[in-house]
Amino acid sequence: MNPKLPYVLLVVAAVIIFILSCVLLSRGRQSPSCESQPHIVEKTGSTSQSLVFADLTPEEMVQVVRYLQGNLGVRLVDAWRAKPSDNCIASVDVQVPAKAEVLRFLDGGGARPAREALAVLYFGDQPDPNVTEYVVGPLPTPLYHRDVTVQKYGGKVPYHRRPALAVEYKQIAGFLKSRVFPAAPTFMRQVMQYDGASLAAMTAAPRGFQSGDRITWFAMFQNVSGFFVHPVGLEVLVDHSSLDISQWAVSRVFYNGQYYRDMVQLESTYVQGRISVEKVRKAPRDGDFSSMKPRAPSAALFPLQYEPQGPRYSVRSNHVLFQAWSFAFGMSVKTGLRLFDIRHKGERVAYEISVQEALSVYGSNCPGGMSTRYMDSSFGIGRHTSPLVRGVDCPYSATYVDTHSLSETLSPTKRKASLCIFEQNLGSPLRRHYSNLQSLYYGGLVNSALVLRSIATVGNHNYMWDFIFYQNGAIEGKVQATGYASSSFLHGDGLRYGNRVWEHTLGTIRTHSINYKVDLDVGGVKNSLVAHDMAFEMTRAPWSPEQQIERPRLTKKVLDTEDQAAFRLQSKMPRYIYFAANSKNKWGHQRGYRIQITSFSGDHVPEASSMERAISWARYQLAVTRRKEEEPTSTSIYNQNDPWTPTVAFADFINNETITNEDLVAWITTGFLHIPHSEDIPNTVTVGNSVGFLLRPYNYYDLDPSIYSHDGVFFTSEQDFTACETNPIACLPKTASCLPNFPPFTYDGFQNM
Questions:
Q1: What's this model's pTM, rounded to 2 decimal places?
Q2: How distant, in Å, are the alpha carbons of 177, 185, 233, 260, 265 from that of 271?
Q3: Contact 254/366 with Cβ under 8 angstroms?
Q4: pLDDT tens-digit profile of 118-164?
Q5: Under CATH, which number does the domain 50-155 receive?
Q6: What is the DSSP string of 663-676?
Q7: So where are the chain's domains?
Q8: How far is 183 from 175, CA to CA, in rounded Å?
């Protein structure tokens, strides 16, 4: 044997081991991390100009509170501990300047409007208790305040109309615990299994039957996780109209289908054995069937969305840029998410798009349920905006924005990550065509859109508010509903008002109606409203006159007045209705933006109802009116507690004024009927509970603007469609083969409660 052979074999073996090691190491190595690349963000709008719409900063809120404390000449108690007979600050929000002032600043080189705040104060410690609204300015160092209550509402706001503060509910809970429940000790112990903390109360609203009432039904539930679906059959009508808490009283008591004068009568009747008792099994603290805890262990990870070259949008202060879009955003304490100065390709298409109200009307054979008509702006849609959970409420890699508010306290509250912004690949083409006739080619465009989202948790309801910006110039406003279904105790003819969803739980029927304000400025401030639709016409075939053809034709109508532009909820509405500009596109058509509504609303409250005028915006699926500074909102936070004499009645906005070539506003109502069913346990899903509207270009451009998108894909049969230069999708194995830089998971939703 050649003596060198063992050495040769050793060398060969070492080389093989080295090669195999390299292969194995390369296979086990992670892909490189994604790195942001320079990307194109078209310059459309100014960040500094958008600050004219910006929410108040915490520092500004503090300055407003200090100014009010030092300049009103009255003692202001912190709203968290105020009695009804005290003076307190209910809320402080930004006062958005008048549109004419803003446009002079944005478009005409005029002076920046004074920055001001709107403060809502409760004056309980006065001979004539009332609610007063002050404009305070200029910020950041206030020097003046002016009472705008009469100017806005035509008179003072009576004190009984004030939205209930959190402390008032706390005081009512104390009243129930210390003065009401002890009046029926045997019943509460044996039937309710009450231990001083085992019941939770849910308020009804409005509070009574006529102006001046503040008499509220409170339904009792087991105080467990998801208590909304654990009714126990007991409801108490509390008269809390007096400013002296010691004068509060029980007006009626309801238990299992029967009404009683008070808890004393209920106790006496029970002790005598004259009550039909339905004893509810005591639920564990986690709620058992109402628990949101998953019933299955974690398995393979769900798909994730990420941006391999970093975000293609920018967020600076309250200003967002995305491709051809720009807009300013804000968060109203009362009504939640709102947008201003929305521009596409540098041209303003809308001045304001904002949520106005979320209404729910309930049915039940229990008093609390049957009397409930929640108007959520009164409770504060923006105030109840909740911190978002990264990776569930929004994509993990979204941009999360903190918001600040001052409501029912003397100091600002920070809600971390309560608003998110992200670009979303919707998983389908925005447009496409595959050609196998004449020429062979494929052309398409990824449907990637920018989403601005907040989620408000108002009691049992969770509303997910989205504004979505598409590459073809369309804007979508969408709301998805989830959360717990409200319920009543199942008794008697309860199944007329919903479905049984657990042993003693009736999921009660309700309607949900959402109102939006859409101030479109199409090609300028002055617009007209035009309706296009279709009709079939009969004609003789020109080449064969003995034959008849039915052909659809276009119908056109200019809607001249507000009455013509007010479409009742279930009425037929033109399928193409649009704001028309005074300018035309290349093809001679008026440039326009079309309003397209997605809704499956239940019926509106009968207009004969004594409270209907307070929610009269819900009569209409669409109403277009002249824009007026004195008609800034379709409703008022004061309508909830006095719907019989509404502070704002939307029906009064519609008075047959001319709307041709005027500054117009579209008031859009969308909604759905919810009949809870067993699949609403433990929680209602968003699938099928999504409604909203689209604003779509209609002859606004000469062709689809998305043809200029950088995301377009086109190749022919004669091209090498595997080459990056021809087809950018072919580059994905290289450009997207990286790991996203996900930040560590954090959540601050349980802080500063």
A1: 0.93
A2: 21, 10, 18, 14, 10
A3: yes
A4: 999 999 999 999 999 999 999 999 999 999 999 999 999 999 999 99
A5: 3.10.450.40
A6: EEEEEEEEEEEE--
A7: 50-155, 166-288, 313-484+510-674+684-698
A8: 12
